[in-house]
Amino acid sequence: MNFDGILFFPLTPFDSEGEVNEDVLTEHVASGVEHGAGGVFAACGTGEVHALSAAEHAAVVRRSVEATAGRVPVVAGAGGSVGTAIEQARAARELGADAILLLPPYLVGAPQSGLVDYVRTVVAASDIPVVVYQRGSMVFTPQSAAELAAIPQVVGIKDGVGDLGRMHQIVMAVRDLRGEEFTFFNGLPTAELTVAAYRSVGVPLYSSAAFAFVPEVADAFYRAFHSGDALADTLMREFFEPLVRLRDRTPGYAVSLVKAGARLRGVDVGGVRAPFSDPTAAEEAELAELIETGLSLVKEG
Fold first, then answer.
1. By the 8 A CB rule, do 203 and 188 touch?
2. Is there a catalytic annotation at residue 133?
3. How many C-beta atoms lie closer than 10 Å to residue 152's C-beta?
4. pLDDT tens string for the chain (301 positions)?
5. Residue of 106, 118, 158, 299 with catalytic role
6. CB-side exposure of 226: number of CA atoms within 13 Å?
7. Which of 120, 160, 220, 249 has the highest count of CB atoms within 10 angstroms of its CB?
């Protein structure tokens, strides 16, 4: 898999009856690809994988694969119990996904050996490339990360912890074993704020929540950052940093605000499922102003 560009984590649209709106999903994914996404991560955190049934998960993956038409890699979310993760991984493989993003097991603590075994068990039972999502209850030492890298089907690690010292050690340990073929991702919420720091420790790729509702802004920042254009700093100060302050007001807004932003842009994605909650009307008004600011800055830039 070759990821070239921003990693796109699509939303899962729900209709007025609370069911997955597959037609809107298809349009949403196809639009992201047209805007230059380097990879599509379907039914993952931003896609509310925690709230999807097995049938809904399969529908989201199938529609995402169809919408990309082979233009970029499609990675499907999987996780939870070992049994659930295996079922989701097998479904993803059968539906044509290129890999899975393996999320942590829920509500359990485990030693490093157990976490490695969790990954190894899912890999052995599903026969699909795996990107391991380090966050929450699944955080690795450099030594155990090297154990993961020794598993041929494990092709990457996405970091959602933010411990740059640990991440630098992990990158060095894995590179010694697998070289440059192994992929690392910055998976912190609103990763634009930390893209420079992660790049300095050997993690250039990042996921962009903003891409799901203002792809013009996310793409402009990506291009400006990599070319050294001052627009990147301007967007950081006037769009991304205020967005983070709004996001941090309430748990779950890393997803809820993205859905609200998509609705404000005219995409009928519906609201979030419990236990998340949608932003207030006042917060949506703040978000609308931020969107207008971001789009204006891109146009001026």
1. no
2. yes
3. 9
4. 788 889 999 999 999 999 999 999 999 999 999 999 999 999 999 999 999 999 999 999 999 999 999 999 999 999 999 999 999 999 999 999 999 999 998 778 899 999 999 999 999 999 999 999 999 999 999 999 999 999 999 999 999 999 999 999 999 999 999 999 899 999 999 999 999 999 999 999 999 999 999 999 999 999 999 999 999 999 999 999 999 999 999 999 999 999 999 999 999 999 999 999 999 999 999 999 999 999 999 999 8
5. 158
6. 11
7. 220
Sequence length of the chain is 301
